[in-house]
Every structure is written in C-alpha cells, then in structure tokens.
Amino acid sequence: MTLDFLGTLQRTQMCGELRPQDAGQQVVVMGWVNRRRDHGNLIFLDVRDRSGLIQVVLDKELSASAHSRGEAARPEFVVAATGTVRRRAAGLENPNMATGEIEVVASELLLLNDAKTPPFSPAEDAIANEEVRLKYRYLDLRRVEMQKNFRIRHEVARAIRNYLSDEGFLEIETPFMTRSTPEGARDYLVPSRVHPGSFYALPQSPQIFKQILMVSGFDKYFQIARCFRDEDLRADRQPEFTQIDLEMTFPQQELIFKTVEGFLTAAFKTAGITLEIPFVHMTYDEAIRRYGIDKPDMRLPAMVDLTETVTNELRDSLKIEALLPVLGFVIPSAGSLSGTQRRGLVDEIRKYFGECGLDFLDVARLRTNQAFAPLASAIESQMIATPNDLLIVITPKLGTPERWNHDPQWIYKKVGGLRLELARKFADKHGLYTQTGSAADYKFCWVTDFPMYEWDEEAKTWQAAHHPFTSPHEEDIKAGRLTSDKGAVRALAYDIVLNGTELGSGSIRIHRKDVQAEIFRSLGMDEAEQKARFGFFLDALEYGTPPHGGIALGLDRIVMILAGAASLREVIAFPKTARAIDLMVDAPTPVSEQQMKELSLRTVVRS
Questions:
Q1: Among the three residues 410, 432, 454, which one is the final residue of a domain in this structure?
Q2: Using CA atoms, how far apart are residues 243 and 225, in angstroms rounded to an integer?
Q3: Which of 10, 142, 206, 283 could pair with 174 in a Cys bridge, judged by C-beta atoms 3.0 to 4.6 Å apart?
Q4: Is 484 a member of any domain?
C-alpha cells in the first residue's frame, strides 16, 4: 500500500462542525477512521477529529480512485477527504451523531498514514483494563469521553483565569526548583550537579513564594500552578497535580470566600450549571458534630443529636452510657429492607464498630414495644424520617472505653464514617448520588476555624494541622494558648468542600515575625533551626509585610467532579498509576552510571 502526501491540501472544516446548512459546499476534512463499512460499490468511513465525527461516502461510480483508497483504509488510519456535503436520504439520518443529518461525498481520499491494529479501539465507549489504557495513552486520549473531559478542563481553566484577571489579580509564575519546606508530604528532590550533595525540592505548593509576592507589593496574585507531592496515591490524588493558587493583601476571610465563589461560579457556568451563592458556612466543630467529618457531604441529611430525646428509662433498660451522645442519621429511600437484610445490616454495623463501645438501636423494633413506641415516634419525628428511609441510631454502651470520654469528637467521627459507608452501600440502588446537571447536585460549603495543632501519637508531639504559616486566632494568642493549651488553639484556616470532597484549603497568614517565630518555637524549632530553614522568610517579614491570606483549590478535582469521572486519571492527560508509574514512557527508570557520577550520587537499595 502506498501512502499519500498532504502536499498543499488544506483542511476547511473540523469533522464535527458540519451541519445541514453546509449542504452543497465543497469541503476538506481530515482525521482518523473511526469505523469502516464496506457495501461493495459504496464504502462508508466515519472520520473522527477532536470536534466529532462525519460520515464520508466513497462511491465507486463517482470516484474510483477514492473508492480504491477506501478499500485499503482501516480503523485509526489518518485520512484526508475532499468532497461535497449533502443531506442524507430520508430515513438514513443518524440521531446519535451531531452531524447525523449530512455526509460528505468524497471526490478524493488521501491515506496520510496507516495504523497497526490497536490493543483497543478508540471508538469504544469504555475500556475495562486501565493499565492498557495508560500504556497506550495516546490511543485512550482519542476517545470521545476523554476528549470531552479535556474540553471541560480547558473551559474551566480559561473561565477561572479570565475571572481572576478581571478582578485585578496578576498571574505570576513561581519556581519549580526551590528548597524543601514543610507542606505535609514528602518532597521530590532534585540533585544539584553544580553543588554536589545539595538538592532542590519540587514545590508541594507555591506557599512561601506567594506570601513573598505579597511582601513585594503585588497585592493580588494567582497562578494555575503545578505542584508535586511524594505520597501514597488514590483515586483523587496524583504525585503531580494542578492547583488554582491565589493570595491577596489586606483580606478578611469573607473577601477570599467571595473571590472563590466568584471564580467557581464562572467555572461551573461553562458546564451549564448555575451555582447558588453564598455557600453554606460552618465551623470545624460544627462539621464534626453534624457530619462526623471535616469535609461534609451535604447531599445526605446531617446527623441528629438524640441525647435529650432518649429517656433515662430507655438508657437504663438498654444500658446506654449516660454521659455520651446518642446520634442518629437517615439514609433516604433505603428503608425497604427485608427481615434478613435488616439483621444482616445490624451485624454489619456492629462489625464496623467492633469493640469500641458503640451499638445500634433498632427503632423499628422499638416501635413494636408498647412502652417505647412513643419514644420511637419522637425519634422518627426529630430525624424527619419517612417510612421509605433507613433510620440508624447509634448508642454508646455502658463500659465504653474511658479514653473516649476524653475525646467525645471520636464518637461523632466514627458515626459519621458509618453514615458515609451506608450511603455508599445504598447509593447505586437508590440513586442518592445521581447527577441531574442541576445546581442541587453540587453542595458546597466552607469549613472554618480548624484546630491550629494536631497531636502526633507516634512522635508524641504537636504538629501544625494546616501549615506553620497559618495565623492563629488573635484571642488564642493573647490568652497564651500557644504554649499552655495547644489543643484549644484555633487557626484562621478554611476549606472549601464540594459533595464530601475537599477542593481546597487556605488561611489568613502570619505577617509578623514575632508571631511566626513563636509558632515555629511552639512546633519545637529552636532559633538555629528556624534560621537554617526559614531565615530568608523571617527576614522578609521584617520589611513591612502587609496582612495577607489566600487559598489553593485542586483544578483536577474540580474537573473530575464536573466530568462525572471516578478518578483524577480521567482528567489528567498523562497520569501515574497507583504505584506512581507512568506506563506509557516507563518511568521512573534507572539512569546511567555517568549521570550518577556527574551528580555525585550512588544508589543504595534498602533490603
């Protein structure tokens, strides 16, 4: 088979752009053969490019040479077709194609490149083996679904960039090669050839640089920034990712919230979704009490505190702990369980809680007891449950381990975990998480006033819960809690959450050197360590640093949710596997001895 050269032939339209009003026009379309159907004297090629498909007709009587080339064409061959647009005959339209009312009758067909039989067809809607997809990512990305995902990504990024630019933010790039700073994960390190034994670190975020830009007087900064974290991977986490990063001077939290709500509204509008603003606000403590988690999924009803509803008589009868809360929650439309299913659910709940001292109160059985029927009705009324709902009440039993009395939030977190577990169990069956394309599908909220510190049980020390550049509440500083009661210190930190997924985190920053040094000291850093690790930053704080704050949101996660994808790998062009491997280019790989020598490195493999 002889392949053709393109020569001076120029494409006139994208395949998916043609419409009935183009009938009669001479066009040149180019792309890949999506499917081929041979009917003897008539050959039909569905030609595909980024914009969609067009049916090309090769009629032997009209052009024997074009028909001959069509006989040689196979799926994924690259072709150029010159011809006339015409309406399809009545009854032969294809309602599943945007161009299904028309076709191109080719007078000439060029075979620009051939293709091996691919391991899977880009014409398929889904390919089960993800490793094969990632190995042949260039084929996977040809699929309509993947092309759609990256159109969404482009439109979202463009809308955000335009919105922030119009609001007076300047887009400024920060370095990829910097020094290691604490950001909550391990750094990727880059050895220096010029300075043997020294390393750059790839940024986990542009945190310090964007703060220095505020010191530098730029007032409002943003960047759609590449970031790198060496951490264990999962469906919504990749070692390299993209975040919408911004910082501004003289803000209150509310100004940052308004800015984020503005660019998210612009981003979601590109997908035809009008968001309702302002978003719900709740404190960290409120989120834990109502949802058992600091990233609440508000598509499900919140937990209900039934402590006051459960009578002392019932507590004594069922041996319910008097000092700890009784919590209930509802899983909508999941109440039609058989007796066997209900018994299995009780066993599942008790297995989930294990020996932690929490148990399940079956309200349906309680209702059948004449003495407790009014209480069952009161519980159902307080939880706003219907007969079609699954109603769960969790009770701390007598003998609950003493340590939980000192950490009652643990109970909220454990019950909140069960709430999500059962929601996932019943979601598919009852359509709890079905996307309808309306604003009601997207439940945003702001979570504020996070703890400043968290206890590291293994290291037996307090660590920064957010990052050490986050400002504590002023009253907590004045009350001396930084040294006397770290567990009670609240941070001026906030998260933006959507449908149980944390989209981003931010904070009002520390802008005074004395406060920053005190935070470092409270984390166990002496003056020498502070100077060695952050001397340049502490120096910058001495030169008139304005109050400032900011936030960073995961662009990949936003696009993943808008695309209805199950994994970040569906919206990142060249992602890594769960083992941080790029199957397409086979990375990471060993490097040559010469390269190692130039970098003054050698490899020691741990056993």
A1: 432
A2: 5
A3: 206
A4: no
Per-residue pLDDT band for 356 (boundaries 50, 70, 90) equals: confident
Other beta carbons less than 10 A from residue 489's beta carbon: 22
Last residue of a domain, one of 414, 432, 450: 432
What does the DSSP assignment read for 454-521? EEETTTTEEEESS-TTBPBPHHHHHTTHHHH-GGGPBBSEEEEEETTEEEEEEEEBP--HHHHHHHHH
In a domain, 123, yes or no: no
Distance of alpha carbon 511 from alpha carbon 550, whole angstroms: 13
Which pLDDT tens digit goes with each residue over 393-429? 998 887 666 656 557 788 999 999 999 999 888 876 6
State the residue for tokens 């906030």: 494
If one counts the domains in the chain, the total is 3
What CATH number does the domain containing 42 carry?
2.40.50.140
Q: DSSP per residue over 372-423, as a string?
A: THHHHHHHHHHTT--TTSEEEEEEEBTT--HHHHT-THHHHHHHHHHHHHHH
CATH number reported for the structural domain that contains residue 187 in this entry: 3.30.930.10
Q: Which domain holds residue 233?
A: 146-276+505-593
CB 62 within 8 A of CB 47: no
Q: How far apart are CA 115 and CA 598, in angstroms?
A: 41
Determine, yes or no, domain membership for 459: no
* Omega of the bond leading into 278 within 30 degrees of 0 (cis): yes
Alpha-helical (H) ranges within 220-338 are: 253-269, 284-291, 312-318
* 186 DSSP 8-state letter: B
Q: Looking at the domain assignment, is residue 445 inside a domain?
A: no
Query: Burial level of 554, CB count in 10 A (0-12/13-18/19+)?
Result: buried
150 with 263, same domain: the answer is yes
Indicate the DSSP class of residue 234: B
Same domain, 271 and 325: no
- Does the structure show a pLDDT above 90 at 55? yes
